[in-house]
Structures are given as C-alpha cells and as structure tokens.
Design brief:
Layout lengths: L12 H16 L9 E5 L6 E4 L15 E4 L14 H13 L5 E5 L2 H8 L10 H4 L5 E4 L8 H8 L9 E4 L3 E6 L2 H23 L9 H12 L4 H15 L7
Parallel strand pairs: 5-6
Antiparallel strand pairs: 1-2, 1-4, 2-3, 4-7, 6-7
Helix pairs in contact: 1-6, 1-8, 2-5, 3-6, 6-8
Amino acid sequence: MADGSHHSNLTHWQERVDLAASFRWTARLNMHEAVANHFSLAVNEDGTQFLMNPNQRHFSRIKASDLLLLDAHDTSTMDMPDAPDPTAWGLHGSIHRACPHARCVMHVHSRYATVLASLADSRLPPIDQNTAMFYDRYVIDDGFGGLAFEDEGARCAALLTDPKVKTMIMGNHGVLVLGDSVADTFNRLYYFERAVETYILALQTGRPLRILSDAVASKTAAELDDYPDQAGRHLAELKAILDDEGSDYAS
C-alpha cells in the first residue's frame, strides 16, 4: 500500500486512503450513479474543513491524492479552477457548516434506498437485524425541492442537527448517511442498502410482514450500535482485498 511519502504535500493521508477505498467499493457494489454522488470527511475539530471527491470523477477511479480539501466557510470555493460539483458543495458544505458531529457524510442514489425514497410511506420497519439497526435512528425528508444547491443543502442540514440521527431517507432523491469516520459511515451505508433491499423484496411477496416489537427493535439497534469494531474490520478487509488486487486507490 502507498504510505503517502511521495505525497508529502498532501495532508490527512490515512483519511484520504480510507475515503478512496470507500469510493472504490461503493462502485463495486453498484451503489454509485455515473459520475454523480459524493462522500465527504471532516478533518478539523469543528468539521468545517473536509475532503471530498473531485467534480464528476467515476467512483471506480478515485485515488487518495485526487480528493479535494475544502473549507465550508470559503465563499470563493466555486470560483476555483478545480471547484467541486455545485450540488456537492451545496449539500456537503451546508452539513459540515451546520453539523459538527457529522464527521463523514455519504450520499448516494443507490437502487433500493431510492425505491424506498420514492414510496409515499418511506419508513423502514424493523423486520430483521439489518432493518432493526436503523430503528429510531433515521429521519425522512419530505421536502425535496430540486437539485441540492445551497438552499436545498441548508434545508437538509437543518434536519440533521440531532446527533442520534445518522441516516436521512431523502424523499424523491436517495439516502444520506452520517458517521464518526469513513469506516463507521461506509458500514452504515452498506447495511442501509442491504436492509432496504430485504424490505423491498419482502413487500414484493405481497405477504404480511413479520415486524419486530418496538422493545426488541430498540434492543437490537442498541446492541448493533455497541457491536465491537465491526465497521473498522469491514473497511480493513475491503482495503486488504483492494491491496491484494493491486488497486491504485491508495496512490
């Protein structure tokens, strides 16, 4: 794996490597969308400086050294030659400005999450362990107002001020997941898509759902919250697979 020594001018190297790996794996899971969608990671204490993918680069090609280092308070950001995607700046910039607890932010239009976001009732009932993981830990945005430029980004950020809320089901749009690190956030994104896939497939049977009681769903969610280092191991294993394959993500 590249140790970053030849990128001595680039800061936050390990964070860059982790984020690059998460882009590569999201593409492999077919949860990306063409050259759209964005992940960001805060790198300073108040969360206002953050790494994000460059404008309209395919997730499967993103390298650690490609990531932009942006400042949420820099009003000249969109005038720079390597300016980010304007909707990415609108959404992620707004969240990093308003929600210092949102260390990492991942937004995709993945297949099953977007199906859920398209239903009149976008709630995710606890019908298995994966769906229970999100019990009482998500918010549904019912106010989609078009592409996520500054106003729409600020509106979304206002729904994420409760640190308990780690997932936003974006009605008519997709999903947005928050976390403490790349590993924590990617793991949540992965499990959300799995959970919603189970739910959508269960709905397609037309048969009654076996919904967990509130007590058991709440207990299961708490147990999964405290499960030891699953997220860290998940990302470490994915990076090991990429390394074994000779991937250039960490360059």
